[in-house]
Automatic annotation (TrEMBL):
This is Nickel pincer cofactor biosynthesis protein LarB. Residues 133-265 form the PurE domain. It comes from Candidatus Desulfovibrio intestinavium. PANTHER family: PHOSPHORIBOSYLAMINOIMIDAZOLE CARBOXYLASE-RELATED (PTHR43064), SLL1489 PROTEIN (PTHR43064:SF1). GO terms for biological process: 'de novo' IMP biosynthetic process. Coiled coil: none annotated. Pfam families: AIRC. One of its GO terms (molecular function) is hydrolase activity.
Length: 270
């Protein structure tokens, strides 16, 4: 919402011409349109839904990508972009040198702009990842790490307490045992697996917390780009398993963030 529009909205409330509830509703419905690059941004999405708009970089032109990040950052708000290619990462860093790019998770973060054109520190989204947290992301194999890192990084951007445990799948389940105390202390677990996709069922049979299953496209042949893992997870006989789309680490993070209210100790990048 432009500053002039926002000021007029506040003035109408002060004069008694507009109720605070109606003003909040109008604020939440405001959009920002950029006709040059075909964008209609939604900077007030967090007011309506609890989670702000995130830029999906894949298949965007350079002009649209830069316009989306600049538009959402217009008032100094932090911005998260997902599925950012290395070339797009270099482009964003050239235009926004205060940002950070993590090639493993394909995430770019432009942190909050503070008074005096200073910037807050970007959250650390890369390895080594903590192995405990309110939300734990767990991978079956090392090949699943990019999807898991997308979930972890998104949650960290939203200020959630989270960790990432990798390569503890059913090919060697004894690797899971040392992490059971942290897993049982978590409020939610995101299990990321390709191949046959069995890890979520194993974890759900051991844990009391809700479990979100993320199938990945890791595999070959009858794995069909993750469809075999997706079918396995959807057919789990263990209660309390919800499944998101193939390779959708971001979607799992968003579901976990909405399902669990933030703890007092959480510090949002927003």
């Amino acid at each position: 919402m432009e500053q002039q529009h926002l000021a007029s909205l506040f003035a109408a409330v002060a004069r008694g011409e507009l109720s605070p509830d109606l003003a909040a509703a109008r604020f939440a419905q405001s959009t920002l349109e950029d006709s040059l690059s075909g964008l209609t941004l939604d900077p007030q999405r967090a007011v309506r839904t609890g989670l702000g708009e995130v830029v999906f970089a894949a298949r965007k032109s350079d002009e649209s990508l830069l316009g989306a990040v600049a538009g959402l950052h217009r008032d100094g708000s932090p911005v998260l972009a997902t599925r950012v290619s290395p070339a797009q990462g270099r482009l964003l860093l050239e235009r926004f040198p205060q940002g950070r790019y993590w090639p493993v998770s394909c995430l770019f973060v432009l942190p909050r702009r503070l008074p005096g054109d200073c910037y807050a520190a970007a959250p650390e989204l890369g390895p080594p990842w903590p192995r405990q947290g309110d939300i734990l992301v767990v991978t079956a194999g090392a090949a699943d790490i990019p999807v898991a890192a997308e979930a972890f990084g998104t949650l960290r951007f939203w200020g959630r307490s989270c960790g990432l445990i990798s390569d503890v799948g059913v090919a060697g389940l004894h690797r899971l045992t040392p992490h059971l105390p942290a897993l049982r202390a978590a409020r939610c677990v995101i299990a990321v697996a390709g191949m046959e996709g069995a890890l979520p069922s194993v974890l759900a049979g051991l844990l009391a917390c809700p479990l979100l299953a993320v199938p990945t496209s890791v595999g070959y042949g009858v794995g069909e780009g993750g469809r075999a893992a997706l079918s396995t997870m959807l057919c789990s006989c263990v209660p309390g398993v919800a499944v998101v789309n193939i390779d959708n680490g971001f979607g799992a993070a968003a579901f976990a963030a909405k399902m669990l209210p933030p703890a007092e100790s959480d510090t949002a990048c927003l």
